[in-house]
């Protein structure tokens, strides 16, 4: 009985641990365009926008000060944030690095 209880405890602990696999390269994006400050929008996420051709992306970053690149042609690298777009808005990108084009 003790062995069964110990085995069940180990199985419960092991099954409760979640192993996260590294995100694939499908979520990594590189975008060329002009960064703009986010103004009044119908969606409520992101702090900045980047327009690349006819496509607009919402941006946020904890690593890069996006205000340093306002109205500049840049190339940025980031990851798509899961769960977006919502509210008919653009995709949300977590910016990892930005370079002047």
From TrEMBL:
What domain of life does the UniProt record list for this protein's source? Bacteria
- Write the protein's name: Uncharacterized protein
Q: Which organism is it from?
A: Pedobacter psychroterrae
